[in-house]
Amino acid sequence: MSAQILVIGAGPAGLAIARALREKGLDYDHVERNVGPGGVWDIDAPGTPMYESAHFISSRTVSGFSGFPMPSHFPDYPNHRQVLSYLTDFAVAHRILAPIRFNTAVTDLDRSGDEWEVTFDDASTARYASVIVCTGSQWTPNAPAVDGFTGEVRHSVTYRSSDEFVGKRVLVVGGGNSACDIACDAATSAREASISMRRGYWFIPKHVFGVPSDIVGGAGSFLPKRLERAVLQPVVRLLVGDLTKAGLQKPTHKLFETHPVMNDQLLHHLRHGDVTARVGIASASGSTVTFTDGSAADFDLILLATGYRHAVPFAQRWFGDQQHPDDLYLNAFSRRHRGLYTVGFIETNSGAYRLFDLQSHLLAGYLAERDPVKRRDFEDLIADDRAPLNNGLRFDRSPRHKGYVDSDAFVAHLVKVGAVFGWPLTSGDGR
Ligand SMILES: Cc1cc2nc3c(=O)[nH]c(=O)nc-3n(C[C@H](O)[C@H](O)[C@H](O)COP(=O)(O)OP(=O)(O)OC[C@H]3O[C@@H](n4cnc5c(N)ncnc54)[C@H](O)[C@@H]3O)c2cc1C
Question: Does the C-beta of 32 come closer than 6 Å to ligand 1?
Answer without folding.
Answer: yes
